[in-house]
Design a protein that fits this description.
The chain has helices at residues 30-42, 68-78, 97-108, 114-121, 127-141, 145-153, 159-174, 181-185, 190-200; strands at 11-15, 19-22, 47-50, 83-86. It is mostly helical. It has 2 domains: 11-108, no CATH class; 114-200, no CATH class. It has a two-stranded antiparallel sheet. A two-stranded parallel ribbon has the order 3-4. Helix 6 (145-153) runs antiparallel to helix 7. The termini are far apart. 17% of the residues are buried.
C-alpha cells in the first residue's frame, strides 16, 4: 500500500494507493540507487515485481545494477518485511497467461498489514487480549526483534503492555544477540541487568 507520494522518475500509479509501475529502481550511482529505493520504502512499498531478463542491458550495453539485497535489507530494518520477486519477460514481448497468473498470485499473497490485524484483535486492555497481540506479533515477524517490537507498540490500544510482553517473548526465542546494540547500550545499570539475566537463566 502506498502511504506517501513517491517522487520517482518515469513512474505512474496503476491503482491509486495500491499499485504503481515504473522504470528500473536501481541506478549506476550507488548513492542515487539507495535514494530511489529508500523513497519506495518510505512510501510504504514492500514488494517489487521485477519483469526484466537477468542479462538485460541499458541502451549503452551496460548491465543494470542489482537492487534486491538493498531493498530486502533496509526493508527489514525499517519495516516488517520487503521482497523482490522476479518474473523475467522477454524484451519487446508480452507476458504469457501463465506469467500473469503467477504475478497476480504473488501480489495477492501479500500479508495483511500487521498494524490493522493487531487492532482487529483487540486493544490489549486485559491480559488475554494483550497476550494475543503479543504472540501474533512475535509469530508474524519470525526472526526480526526490531520489527516485532515496532509492530506491537504501533496500535491504538495498551501499547506499553503489549510491547513489554512481546519483547519478552522475542527475547526468549531469539536470544539477547537479536536485540539492537544501540538499545542495550542506553539501558541504565546495563551491566547489572545483563549479569542478573544470566543468573536467572
Amino acid at each position: 500500500m502506498l502511504i506517501n507520494e513517491v517522487h520517482f522518475p518515469r513512474s505512474y500509479r496503476v491503482i491509486p494507493g495500491l499499485l504503481m509501475a515504473g522504470e528500473h529502481p536501481g541506478a549506476k550511482d550507488s548513492k542515487e540507487g539507495a535514494q530511489k529505493l529508500s523513497s519506495l520504502l518510505d512510501a510504504g512499498i514492500r514488494l517489487i515485481i521485477n519483469l526484466m531478463e537477468p542479462d538485460e542491458t541499458d541502451h549503452t550495453g551496460r548491465p543494470f545494477n542489482r537492487y534486491g539485497g538493498f531493498f530486502r535489507q533496509h526493508g527489514r530494518e525499517e519495516k516488517p518485511w520487503a521482497e523482490v520477486s522476479a518474473y523475467p519477460i522477454c524484451d519487446l514481448n508480452v507476458p504469457s497467461v501463465d506469467d500473469v497468473t503467477k504475478i497476480f498470485g504473488t501480489i495477492k499473497s501479500l500479508p495483511t498489514p500487521a498494524t490493522k490485524t493487531v487492532e482487529s484483535l483487540s486493544g490489549g486492555w486485559v491480559a488475554k487480549e494483550a497476550m494475543a497481540i503479543s504472540i501474533y506479533c512475535a509469530l508474524w515477524v519470525e526472526d526480526d526483534f526490531l520489527a516485532g517490537v515496532r509492530t506491537t507498540v504501533n496500535h491504538n490500544g495498551d501499547r506499553d503492555s503489549t510491547g513489554a510482553i512481546s519483547e519478552n517473548i522475542l527475547g526468549c526465542v531469539l536470544g539477547a544477540s537479536a536485540i539492537p546494540a544501540k538499545w542495550v547500550d542506553r539501558l541504565e545499570l546495563n551491566e547489572f541487568k545483563i549479569r542478573g539475566q544470566h543468573t536467572y537463566l
